[in-house]
Amino acid sequence: MKKCCLAILMALIISPIVPLFAQDKKNPQVFYGRVFRSQGDTLFYRVLYPKGYTENSRSKYPLVVVLHGEKWCKEGQFDNTKQLNSPVAELFKRPETHDSFPAIVIIPQCDFDDPWAQFTPSDSANVVPFPSDPEQTYSGELTERLINYYVKHHPVDKNRIYMIGQGAYGGSGALDLAVRNPDMFAAVVSIGGAVCPDRVKSIKKLPVRLYTSSSCKEVPLTLIQDVYISLKMYGSTVEPIVDFSNMSEDECAATVTTTPDFLRWIFSKKK
Questions:
Q1: CB contact at 8 A, 130 and 195
Q2: Which of 16, 192, 238, 245 could disulfide-link 171, Cβ–Cβ 3.0 to 4.6 Å?
Q3: Residues 100-130 pLDDT 10s
């Protein structure tokens, strides 16, 4: 009788543990909502985990950081959802993507008034150059801290951290963050962004791809060409700018994400 009671008691104790372990695995098609707090500052973001991932995973995974464009900034209170409608976010939700390129993907959300980097949109009548010595924005600094947090507390392969920025806001933010932390990333992609060409010497050894649409006015093609020319002058192996003419920012980003070698090129890079 005592043995029977003991067996029942053990079953009651053990049975709840099984579903807990089962629930620990993340759905690779879901971007989970998260809030990062650091030194009194707050950054809302979404994170997608690779198939089979658990908090105790022994495998190290690439980390992909995606910076959205102006269209996906928060309105009023942070909704932490709009950035998931961007073409780059959609790319990583596809089953074929996380099957072929397993990675931890984080997509933070910034405010209109505090973009990823100091940026003044140009218009057709006034091309505004990027500042040569800009202060880092709160959103940019918090993103940097968030990356360091994931490297320290999650199974991240620190030799395979990739940055993808979409649009004038995101593309410029990606380049700005890379210039500030050239040893952090294994590759950087800017879709429609730029920085002051005087700043790019620090990323001359970093694999960089520059995409744009010459019809986009916020960051004219001439400013992106300045970045390219400056990188080449410093000895960079940066590839020629890919210009999808007569496309909107979203159309350009959507076309880039369907380019066959887009992810292959990114994930082939390692520090």
A1: yes
A2: 192
A3: 999 999 999 998 888 899 877 666 556 667 9
Q: How far is the C-alpha of 31 from the C-alpha of 113, rounded, in Å?
A: 25
Contacts of residue 249, defined as CB under 8 A and 6 or more positions apart, other chains included, come to 69, 71, 166, 167, 168, 192, 213, 216
pLDDT along the chain (271 residues), means of 10: 43 36 64 94 94 84 94 71 90 92 96 85 68 94 97 96 94 97 97 96 97 84 95 96 87 90 97 94
The closest alpha carbon to 213, from 191, 230, 229, 189, belongs to: 191
Distance between CA atoms of residues 88 and 140, nearest Å = 19
SS (H, E, C) the chain: CHHHHHHHHHHHHHCCHHHHHHHCCCCCCCCEEEEEEECCEEEEEEEECCCCCCCCCCCCEEEEEEECCHHHCECCCCCCCHHHHCHHHHHHHCHHHHHHCCCEEEEEECECCECCCCCCCCECCECCCCCCCCCCCHHHHHHHHHHHHHHHHCCEEEEEEEEEEEHHHHHHHHHHHHHHCCCCCCEEEEECCCCCHHHHHHHCCCCEEEEECCCCCCCCHHHHHHHHHHHHHCCCCCCCCEECCCCCHHHHHHHHHCCCCHHHHHHCCCC
- Sign of CA pseudo-dihedral 140, 45, 191, 92: positive
Compute the distance between CA of residue 55 and CA of residue 69 in angstroms, rounded to an integer.
Answer: 30
Q: What pTM, to 2 d.p., does this model score? A: 0.87
Q: Which two tokens stand for residue 239?
A: 């590839």
Assess contact for 195 and 206: CB atoms under 8 A. no
